[in-house]
Amino acid sequence: MKTMTCRQLGGPCDHEHRGDTADDVINAQDRHLNEMVAGGDETHGPALADMKGRWKRPISGMKWYRNAKKDFAALPENGSAHNA
Ligand SMILES: [Zn+2]
Prior knowledge:
The protein is mainly alpha-helical. It has one domain (2-12, 19-72). The protein is 55% helix and 10% strand. The chain has helices at residues 22-38, 45-56, 58-74; strands at residues 2-5, 16-19. The protein has a two-stranded antiparallel sheet with strand order 1-2. Helix 1 packs across helix 2 and helix 2 (45-56) crosses helix 3 (58-74). It binds zinc ion (ZN). The site of zinc ion has 8 residues, from helix 1.
């Protein structure tokens, strides 16, 4: 289990996503962006537009996706001190 923040995934806040794989946190970030914008938060608008654009532009999107996976792989596993 690792933790990646909204900010580490290109977003504007320090909301933490936890997951066992990069896909987990990327999907969580996708949901988080949608929820924040749906709730009227404008600061997450640009990150949501980027995320949506990524699925439309497979080449640059894949580059971001690979970078996110690399960043996730480089993160340390959550220690017991961080487990909720
Ligand atoms: Zn956020």
